[in-house]
Amino acid sequence: xxxxxxxxxxxxxxxxxxxxxxxLLPGHDEAPMDFRANVYPFRQDSCFRYFFGLDRPGxxxxxxxxTGEDWLFGDDPGIDxxxxxxxxxxxxxxxxxxxxxxxAPRAHLADRLAxxxxxxxxILHPPSYRAETRQxxxxxxAGQAAGDxxxxxxxxxxxxxxxxxxxxxxxxxxGLAVTRDMHHAAMVLTRPGAREQEIVGQVEGLVRSAGxxxxxxxxxxxxxxxxxxxxxxxxxxxxELVVHDAGAWSAxxxxxxxxxTIPVTGRFDPVQAQLYDxxxxxxxxxxxxxxxxxxxxxxxxAAARVLVEALCDLGLFRGDPDRIVASGAYALGFxxxxxxxxxxxxxxxxxxxxxxxxxxxxxxxxxxxxxxSLRLAKPLRLGMTVTIEPGLYFIPQLIxxxxxxxxxxxxxxxxxxxxFAGFGGIRIExxxxxxxxxxxxxxxxxxxxxxxxxxxxxx
Length: 459
Description:
Shape: globular
Number of domains: 2
Number of helices: 16
Helix content: 25-40%
């Protein structure tokens, strides 16, 4: 946790942004896996954690911009919680750690909200992505219009959370130190005949031994053309490329998100090397373009152009690279966006709405295949943290579908694309901070060039 003043200042900034508002921020309750006492590992709602800091279930925060008061509603641990889980901290003591003076039992929340509604006050709250939270809010706010009708609350939260304080950056970099070890271990363990699940298991052990948890389900697969492949049921073969996309939550709850593409034998064949270097050039350019005021959309299109040039050299595309990018034809090989925001969430704040986080009044989402998947398009701001993750993916089903539709047939050599149908995929990803004069890759260096990865794998 950060200093109590950090949470007090965040709540005050939200009050200033939304004068007179009454803002309800529900934390998470525990979620059963198969019966009530057997629960999933607890993960706090990120908006609650950002403003109230506490990583324990059963809490609800209330920020009153009219009175200037902050409230925490929850219950002190009973004897059963003490016996079974060792929980002893009373709510008032926990509240003091985040500079909250007012606390009350959870059962008092309904009366407090009913009195506010009777007084004609609107209660703002973020959109709910858990069914149990929606059910709780329906019960508490029956008859009141849903939580953020004009998006003011989401806009205010995004404006605050997307600018990272130095303490938050330090927390992310502590997580990235462990993430480096995860990726280097995977490189060492990757070899012909190894089972994907064996490598994932050993990497997971590193995370657990550091006292951390994965920020999302690990991707480790020789089927890299499946962008989010969560199966580990294959045996690695010589000549394959493995996409390893894995990150951890730091002790303070901040996510990391790193991808490397590993040659199973430790060496790339000539075509693999040509395409890998193209993806690395695209990533290097995209990172260099990150700076305050630059639209992330333009960074994405610049990375796409680098990839198109490489595919033109191999005869997969033909014609002017700028025209290929503008038409959307490039998405046959690069189907996703070049990155997203990262912070307390691996896709930071996207529970508030992807467009609310990544777009603004001047930057609208495209309807083109591929480009419509770009999660962040608006101009970057000083202090934002983003992922930069261009990739090339040869998806047989997509190639066949586009060919049957005769889509962009003047720019695409479908025979050449079909020859790559068994190639797989390549992705390279780092976490990047937007600085006053450009950007900085966060965390310790993680082997990325072909030579660097060969050195780690040989070691």
